[in-house]
Amino acid sequence: MIIQYIPWLIAVLTLIAVVWIVIVSWRNGISPMPTSRQVRQVVIQEVNRIPGYADIIEAGSGWGTLGMDVVKHCPGKRLTGIENSLIPLWTSQCLTWLSVGFNRAGAVIRTERGGQGNSFKGRLRFIHGNIYTCSYAHADGVICYLFPGAMTRLADKFKRELPPGARVISVCFALPGKEPLRTLICRDALRTKVYVYAF
Ligand SMILES: C[S@@+](CC[C@H](N)C(=O)[O-])C[C@H]1O[C@@H](n2cnc3c(N)ncnc32)[C@H](O)[C@@H]1O
């Protein structure tokens, strides 16, 4: 009897999830739209230019695809994603948790074969927070894909809080009143710009 209601339950839950995402996106001024593969490659290249074991904050981490790719391709970097939209946040946390499990299984096999295991464990976390109130004081780098209003609000905060030498890597939108160190143009259809700043 109950089984016949399962498709309806799934449909209702999906509708609630979509409406919830839309409401939070409307309040935030931006949806959790992920960056394309080509843009992620440019961000990864720039994160790899930050020397040493750097702490990276992703301001607005959405579904977690950018953060996961950065940690996967940037050895020694640790990333904290800050997100306030719960459904994308929970998705990113589940994906990280699954990857840690799969990586651990893979690492055992690789280690038995003499190779090295590479895991997200301890290097990647996605947390619930607000990008306008969280602290950037310990970040060696910030990555973000936001919108012009957010960049205006964050410009002063970055200036006050970021340690000297920290990098800000911003997809699409420039920081007002600050000259970028370089501006890169991605090979995607939109020729997306990535702005890199040094503080
Ligand atoms: C365009 S998405 C980018 C997602 C991810 N960084 C990427 O590049 O794939 C921007 C994200 O910022 C989040 N966001 C916007 N305002 C926020 C705030 N005040 N606090 C936390 N997250 C916020 C949105 O919910 C959204 O998921």
UniProtKB/TrEMBL annotation:
Entry annotated with the keyword Membrane: yes
GO terms, molecular function: protein-lysine N-methyltransferase activity
Superkingdom, natural source: Bacteria
InterPro entries attached to this UniProt entry: FAM173A/B (IPR026170), SAM-dependent_MTases_sf (IPR029063)
Keywords attached to this entry: Membrane, Methyltransferase, S-adenosyl-L-methionine, Transferase, Transmembrane, Transmembrane helix
Membrane spanning residue stretches: 6-26
GO process annotations (BP): methylation
The protein's name in its UniProt record: Class I SAM-dependent methyltransferase
Species of origin: Paenibacillus barcinonensis
